[in-house]
Design a protein that fits this description.
It is elongated and about 115 Å long. It is built from 14 helices and 15 strands. β4 and β5 form a beta hairpin. With about 500 residues, it is α+β, with helices and mostly antiparallel strands. The chain folds into three domains: about 130 residues, Jelly Rolls, CATH 2.60.120; about 140 residues, no CATH class; about 170 residues, Heat Shock Protein 90, CATH 3.30.565.10. The chain starts with 15 loop residues before the first helix and ends with a helix. The strands form four sheets. Strands 10-12-13-15-14 form a five-stranded mixed sheet.
């Protein structure tokens, strides 16, 4: 795509004075501007046209003159818009051509014209020649910065991902362990009760209980199962009193092990009146066997209910993990921010100290929004973890949501020590952290800011004083409209290209 000066028509060139109006070239010498004017050309594109595609050889350096552009990346097979702008002078394309064959010279994203647009275009070879010839010292600095930053980012990014994965895995396994252990305990107890019921079946098989008695026993069993299914709601004191009453009644009627049978009977709502009726139905000689049979039945029902609750809890945790990671979902989707927040809290449950109280103040009337769910969960995680770190001695973590005009606001508040005024302007800077060396990378808030502002065209703001720090994430309800109005240069900076 390289053109010699003679091949470029006059109407497709910019004059040196016009080039000087672009912020990249405003400090160049007249000779340098003449060189660019002779070699660069104007490229006109219609709305919706692809200027270049991700992965294609990077042959040109583009500067926006008029119109608007958008940048896109392919992530897991989906086309994702990473930013758009209409600011004159923003640049993209072969921004790494000065590095030569030391890096792969391909376009790192796809560039589209959002509206009819004009670009100043310089071939990659000529752009590289200008950088190497005009700025030799800057070239060495840029090379060192590029390769050094890339290596450091790779190490830090990998460490961040491993730490995040380890933290979430630890939290998830901790939460899964409780219901899994409960299910194992209930299964062991269930096996023991079923064994006891088999022994009681021997009593029936040898004829010690006649047919009429057996029918009455089965009737009592069915009634006990229904009572166990309904359950009872007793305070600890009420349950203890009821167990004492049932235990005393069983002792009076020569039923051994009353202290062991009473808790199960009371848990199913079986009291003295019911036991008295059972004694009349089966007779005094079969009372103990009947009570034990009924107790085994009740225990079996209660344990199966415990297993069912445990499995349901495990299923809920797996569902929360899927909601958090947004598995099997397209990146941009309609999401319920409350579901995302709850999933994040579930994943972080093991990191929330007992002395920290979690308060949810959700406005359930706020609508669902189009967003990148997994990325928003990363934002909630960073903000919540920072809030917990600010409250080592306990406090209150508050999550609020409300609608503010055409935006949805999510607020993460804490009652910690607050953010000092002198560091508050820097908290969104990459690698800036107030934590001790080795405790934080300083990337959490920077990543959160990029996700909210650059990717969702929203806003991330903070207010802080001792005992009251609030991070507010403002997300547009209409993501498409917000994207078309987004402005900025970050998407076409060398850092993004790299």
């Amino acid at each position: 795509m390289t053109s010699t000066p003679a091949e470029i028509p006059a109407e497709d060139r910019l004059t040196p004075d016009e080039l000087r109006t672009l912020f990249l070239f405003e400090d160049l010498s007249p000779d340098q501007l003449d060189w660019l004017a002779a070699r660069g050309r104007i490229d006109r594109r219609t709305a919706g046209e692809v200027v270049y595609r991700e992965g294609a050889p990077a042959t040109c350096f583009f500067i926006l003159l008029t119109g608007a552009l958008s940048l896109h990346r392919v992530l897991h097979g989906d086309d994702v818009e990473v930013n758009r702008t209409d600011q004159r002078g923003v640049y993209s394309g072969a921004t790494r051509s000065y590095l030569g064959d030391r890096v792969e010279q391909t376009y790192p994203h796809t560039l589209r014209a959002v509206s009819d647009a004009e670009f100043y275009v310089l071939s990659a070879d000529e752009f590289a020649h200008a950088i190497r010839t005009w700025f030799p010292m800057a070239l060495h600095l840029l090379e060192g910065l590029f390769f050094g930053t890339r290596a450091a980012n790779a190490i830090v990014s990998e460490r961040e991902r491993l730490m995040a994965l380890a933290s979430l895995s630890a939290g998830l396994t901790h939460e899964l362990n409780n219901p899994a252990a409960a299910a194992l305990r209930a299964t062991a107890g269930l096996r023991e009760r079923v064994t006891g019921m088999r022994h009681k079946l021997a009593m029936i098989a040898d004829g010690r209980v006649d047919g009429a008695g057996l029918h009455r026993l089965v009737g009592l069993q069915d009634d006990a199962v229904k009572r166990a299914a309904r359950g009872v709601s007793l305070t600890a004191m009420e349950a203890a009193d009821a167990e004492d009453t049932v235990s005393d009644w069983l002792d009076e009627h020569q039923v051994s092990g009353a202290w062991d049978l009473a808790p199960s009977l009371v848990a199913a709502g079986v009291g003295v009146d019911w036991l008295a009726g059972a004694a009349r139905s089966v007779g005094a000689e079969h009372l103990e066997a009947a009570v034990r049979w009924i107790t085994y039945t009740i225990d079996t029902e209660l344990m199966m209910g415990e297993i069912d609750d445990s499995v349901e809890r495990i299923s809920e945790l797996v569902g929360a993990a899927r909601q958090y990671s947004q598995l099997d979902r397209t990146p941009l989707q309609t999401v319920d921010v409350h579901a995302l927040l709850d999933a994040t809290l579930t994943m972080l449950q093991a990191k929330i100290p007992e002395k920290v109280r979690v308060v949810r103040e959700y406005d359930r009337d706020v609508p669902s929004i189009s967003a990148y769910g997994a990325e928003l969960n990363q934002v909630w995680t960073n903000l919540i973890v920072n809030a917990l770190d600010a409250m080592p001695d306990g406090g209150t973590l508050t999550l609020r949501t409300w609608r503010e005009d055409e935006r949805l606001v999510v607020e993460v508040g804490d009652t910690g020590v607050g953010i000092a005024k002198d560091v508050r302007p820097r908290i969104f800077e990459p690698f800036f952290t107030t934590k001790q060396v080795g405790e934080g990378t300083g990337l959490g808030l920077d990543i959160s800011y990029r996700i909210v502002v650059n990717k969702h065209h929203g806003d991330l703001r903070v207010t802080s004083q001792p005992g009251d720090t609030r991070f507010q994430v403002c997300l547009p309800i209409d993501q498409e409209a917000a994207g078309s109005e987004a402005r900025g240069t970050e998407a076409v900076s060398p850092a993004t290209d790299g």
